[in-house]
Amino acid sequence: MVATNMKKQKHTYNPYENFLTTMNNAASLLKLDESDYITFKYPERELKVSFPVKMDDGSLRVFEGYRVQHSSVRGPFKGGIRFHQDVNMDEVKALAAWMTFKCAVVGIPYGGAKGAVTVDPTNFSETEIERLTRRYVTAIAPLIGPDQDIPAPDVNTNGKIMGWIMDTFSMLRGRAVPGVVTGKPVEIGGSLGRPEATGRGVSIITQELLKILGKNASDMKVAVQGMGNVGSVAAKLLDAAGCKVVAVSDVSGGIYNQARLDIPRIIRFLDNKKHLLKDYMEDGVQFISNHELLLCDADILIPAALENQITEEIAKEIRAKIVVEAANGPTTVEADSIMEGRGVTVIPDILANAGGVVVSYFEWVQNIQSLMWNELQVNNMLHDIMVTAFQNVVQKVRDSNISYRSAAYIIALEKLASAKRIRGVYL
Ligand SMILES: NC(=O)c1ccc[n+]([C@@H]2O[C@H](COP(=O)([O-])OP(=O)(O)OC[C@H]3O[C@@H](n4cnc5c(N)ncnc54)[C@H](O)[C@@H]3O)[C@@H](O)[C@H]2O)c1
Question: Which of 51, 217, 222, 284 is deepest in the core (most CB within 10 A)?
Fold first, then answer.
């Protein structure tokens, strides 16, 4: 029997509309002629695939997947692969476009792309996920490659899955092609420092912001939504830097301790997604919902889960005075302007979570030149790039009296429009 997991798509919130509104605002602040940025309104390519996967019980299921290549004007396409039950084309288009702007704001010579499979991986065995990954890679293989489009991990994907991607693509080419994907295990060409890079970048940016606001880390209460790859590392490094992490959550809900949570203990408990926070036990810990986490008594809120979390309703009541967007697209356009009006400082995703693509770039550079860098070297270079990008954005905020999001988009759009002008229009 052939079953299908094709789901009815949600269309109430459209992340691509969110992206377009933000880009259009930046273009009008820059007084750009539409011809300078019209190409960035449209992804260069959108691929939708469906493919069968054999289940462990012998049945066959058909899954849908996507790969969207938003822009290659500044270099090869680059962007992660997400496995999630709710993904749809508009979400993947937005994620791809955000990658274009993220690479531009930190000055990495890549364009933007994103891929996804509509699947809840928690419902499948590891061997089923391996077969699904290999079939998905085979389906998008004509579009990817070290000079073309380089995937990486995102929600519900990890180093092991990147290893299967590298192997599948290498089998198709008949030779080892480590540079086709980043975020791989070190044994097959991954970079030291890559698993922690996104969370490390979030922590660097947060600490740089505290410096310019004249605040001490030890006076800051932090709430982190999403204790996955990105959120757990950000929580760990900010805790180590002296911040009081008072609330964290995952898909099962959140935990709160007004004094301070024991972050190293929580990370050991979660043990790379083997447990959920709803089962965590520690004296003084209160269970809260994800909604309560967003509104809890914290100075810094770090959304590190999914899009569309900080909505208008949340923005009106949020108590944190600083939001550092570790997730992609966690804030709606409406919520963004409400928070701006309420004096909340929001560090946009395209800057805050760029650490992942920066170290992915380092991994790719090592792969294509057969180099191996040590972790200190990688972390130092990441630090320099993140701090420089942050300072450029701060300068723009001060010069033009605009939000961090507008400043980051303006910097990115200037680089993109300039690259487009230099390259010209083919025929
Ligand atoms: N992995 C990277 O290198 C990277 C780079 C840049 C941006 N991002 C972005 O960071 C975010 C998190 O990615 P990740 O790689 O850490 O994913 P992950 O799968 O490792 O972790 C996601 C976390 O969010 C939680 N979660 C899922 N649904 C939730 C919900 N509805 N409410 C609250 N929590 C929920 C999960 O339980 C998990 O703790 C995504 O927006 C992703 O696009 C990731």
Answer: 222
Give pLDDT, residue 2: 36
- Alpha-carbon distance 116 to 382, whole Å? 27
Q: Which of 93, 114, 244, 420 is catalytic?
A: 114
User: Could you report the per-residue pLDDT of 398-409, keeping only the tens digit for each?
Assistant: 999 999 999 999
pLDDT, tens digit, 9 for 90 and up, residues 268-291? 999 877 899 999 999 999 999 999
The phi-psi region of residue 196 (left if phi > 0; otherwise alpha if psi is between -120 and 50; otherwise beta) is: alpha
Catalytic site residue 211?
Answer: no
Q: So what's the pLDDT on residue 66?
A: 98
Mind listing the domains of the chain with CATH numbers?
2-183 (3.40.50.10860), 195-352 (3.40.50.720)
Alpha helix ranges (H) inside 174-289: 194-213, 229-240, 263-270
Residues with Cβ < 8 Å from 312, sequence gap 6 or more? 332, 334, 335, 338
Rounded to the nearest 10 degrees, what angle do helices 355-369 and 89-106 cross at? 80
Q: Which string of DSSP letters, residue by residue, matches 66-88?
A: EEEEEE-TTSSEE--EEEETT--
CA dist 151 and 154 (Å) reads 9
Mean pLDDT of 204-233: 98
Site to probe by mutation for ligand 1, drawn from 306, 357, 363 as the one with most ligand atoms within 8 Å of Cβ, is: 306
